[in-house]
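FORM 7B: Structural annotation worksheet

SECTION A. Query
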Amino acid sequence: MICPEYDYRDGLSDQEFWDRTIASLDAMRDQDYYDGPEPDLFPISGEPCPECGESGPCGYDSEGRPMIHIVSEDEQS
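SECTION B. Predicted structure
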């Protein structure tokens, strides 16, 4: 058994398959998957990052959210 829905999906026509897939993607797009802290809670100081030297975000994730390197006070000295 490959998947519990294998037989059902195997019996779908191309149109039924894509209708189901698009409906699933639309449902996912409507949900908010980010459950982390609000970006405002960790403002970027403007000081260069001791890890990479950037003054702003060190990079961006696949959703476009800014990322920073986490550096402990011990590492900054």
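SECTION C. Observations
The longest strand covers residues 59-60. Residues 34-77 form one domain.

SECTION D. Sign-off
Analyst initials: ____
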